[in-house]
What does this fold into?
Amino acid sequence: MKQLMLVRHAKSSWDAPLRDFDRPLTSNGIHDAHLVSSEISKHIPKMYLLWSSPAKRAAETAVIFAQNISFPVESIVFKEELYTFDGKKLEEIIKSCPDVYDNLIVFGHNEAITNFVNKFGNIFVDNVSTSGFVKIIFENTSWNNIENGITKKVIFPRDLK
It folds into this structure.
């Protein structure tokens, strides 16, 4: 069995004239990341791999979550290819996960995350919100063969306010 947890980066700022890659989190984004990450500890396994897009907003979100779920920040794997908005590309990256790992947490971007959740989960999600968490379980032994997963948990900041 494989468990995948997807997290969309927290709310980011459009105020400064920065490249998209360099946009930081807003104060509301930081708050929401803390809110959701404090809630998910009961929905994640004891052992897992944690991957993140290196974009500033995704990396900052991953660090907040890691700190709140007691995951060593230095063990976060930042993957350049996770800076994608393409669901097919996200699927390829997830399917490349080594099979020795049964549990994977990925921090990334929309539309990729919402498209992935709707392709592989069994519950339609109109839009995975910023700081949104979705857990999907697959009855497979290989990441490369995942399909038709079961959406076990969806947590959005608005559900916790």
Observations:
- The mean pLDDT is 96.
- The longest strand covers residues 2-8.
- The CA atoms of residues 74 and 98 lie 20 Å apart.
- The radius of gyration is 14 Å.
